[in-house]
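Z., the sequence and structure:
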Amino acid sequence: MANPRYLTKSRFKLAVECPTKLFYSGKQEIYKDVMAENEFLAMLAEGGYQVGELAKKLYPDGIEINSRNHAEAESQTNEQLKKENIVLFEPAIRVNNFFIRIDVLVKRGNHFELIEVKAKSYDPLKPNMRGARGGIASGMLPYLQDVAFQKWVLQQAFPKAEIKTFLMMPNKTKLSPVDGVNQIFKYSRTKGVISRVPENVDIRSLAGHLLEKVSADEFTQEILSTDLKYPNGKKPLADIAEEWAIAYLSDEKIPPEIGKQCGKCQFKTALNDVVKSGFHECWKEANNWNDKDFEKGTVLDLWSCKRKEKFIDQGLLKLSQITPEDLTNDSEESMIEGLSRSQRQV
């Protein structure tokens, strides 16, 4: 039986990128989703699963919630959380129309540690959480929004609990004292993660040496107390998450707001493909276009152009509407193989 239509942390992240994507999500037989396979390949390439498995070795008494069925996972989690002290891997927390799986959850009485494990490296000597202007760094923002959403759901499930949040990432300043760390964990589509720890390796000590547990409290509080920005809108996380959860539950399509974010849409394929292209569907709906309007390309096809959003705001959507003068901007000009950026764009 299919799992219920809950707003999960992955779908929350998707909606922050573009709320309309919720309608296309989970419908691979209808809409092309290039990320469905790419995420798995990226996980293998970047060693994401290896970092996750290494993080578990820090908690030898941890219990993994293995079930992929929402109801079973939730039931198993609730049973374990009756214990005064427990460490859980992938526990399932459901509140109304929200459902999350937390990487690592440490419960000590009424105190919780919510730990999100990421393969992104971290330098404690040069923290990269904030940008030059003092705001949360763009490269870290999606991760911290993810953690904030999880904390918000967990806090609703345990309103009287004290919840601390953390990111756990590889410490880029540390060198491994043993060779072949990447060979310890192997991944198989059929068997999952296979762990082979050499007898001479203290895996818990190795994990503690290579991984950095970084407090995210300052940032999650900031995210939860200010408006969350998404394409053409901003609202408090709690308010917009409720709206997105209802839309996803009812399979209601949120009207598209086109912008430069459309250039990275994973729900895009050729117009004549056997599955539908969410990207083309959105642009048709928002601009009253038909298939012919895409024939000569859109402004999103411009190479290395920083002004795509400006062009879209001005209603310049087709490549045929862009002139060489539109592309000339001295502040952006740079010579590449004898040609300026604007010359290459033309």
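The chain has two domains: 9-244, 260-345. The CA atoms of residues 17 and 261 lie 7 Å apart.

Let me know what you think.
H.
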